[in-house]
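Box 4.2: Ligand-aware structure prediction
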Amino acid sequence: MTNSATTAPLPTQKLRFYQKGTFTVGNRLVSEGERSVQASIERSNALTCGHRACQGCGEALGARYAIDAAMRATRNNLIAVNATGCLEVFTTPYPETSWQIPWLHSLFGNAASVAAGVAAAMRVKNRPDVRVIAQGGDGGTTDIGFGCLSGMFERNDDVLYICYDNEAYMNTGVQRSSATPPAARTATTPALGPEPGNIFGTGKSVPKIAVAHGIPYVATATVADLHDLERKVIKAMGIHGARYIHIHVPCPLGWGSASHDTIRLARLAVESGLFPLFEAEHGVVTGNRKIRRPVPVNEYLKPQKRFAHLFTGDGVDRLKLIQAIADRNIAEFGLLDNGENSG
Ligand SMILES: Cc1ncc(C[n+]2csc(CCOP(=O)(O)OP(=O)(O)O)c2C)c(N)n1
Ligand code: SF4
């Protein structure tokens, strides 16, 4: 006997896979053309296992995807120059290396200049097919290496510079950099007093400064959207001249976050408006990535111990100030689809 309750069609529900960039769901569900470089059996595997990054290190993830995509784009004709920092230290404890490409360690502050020299050498040797990447952390990029980077931009050297932004000098014990966000606690920001953590109104946006140099290509990217990250690296490798990609990479050790929350936090940084995703060419912003599910900044800040003091009662005013920063970003880059951009 048939029961009408069991034969009635089930209501359909549209599934959303926000994590299209991860292996677990995304790569098996999207069309072949949309799959990440990592999903290909021909993937280059620039950064092999055995390195010593912390569990859940966003920088290791970002570097592997970025360099793999660049290798693919250049048919493996790629040289990387690395500033001193976590990425350099955890991949190359002497005499070992996890890199599968020609790789040079520069000084902390001169990766952009060394890479410009490598690019010049390739030009002299008539090897236009060999492309050059420089990479470093936010300290190496936005602070000590900033002059060399600006020179590389201004000369339009044929280098892609990638900054892995974990928002502090992590390798030496979490000191503040000019990319550390307001209120974040570090080893060198006030630990006590009425307003602990990094001071509001300080710091700088190197992506915006790169745009102001009028270089051929600038982009921001995140480890929460690896398809988008790979696309931007591949696009950058298709262009000659100075290029800059700034990748937001959570650091469980420095942020006081759980290792398994790295991707979630990277996504919340974007969805809260605190880390806008955009592209620019020759000084003009040409594209952005809309926020799919807007969230208040609290959702991003609360799981991180560096912001714990904001949630103890007297942090309300500063939370409002951080929300205002996010709202300004949303308005400036037009990050919402529904007319809520006027911030
Ligand atoms: C001229 C100079 N000053 C200081 C150091 C010490 N040092 C090495 S790595 C590092 C911090 C790197 O921070 P960042 O560039 O943000 O990269 P992260 O480790 O966070 O990835 C410092 C201060 C150095 N190697 N050279
Ligand atoms: S300290 Fe942070 S950036 Fe360095 S290896 Fe650990 S998680 Fe990665």
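In the box above, the bound molecule is iron/sulfur cluster. The radius of gyration is 21 Å.
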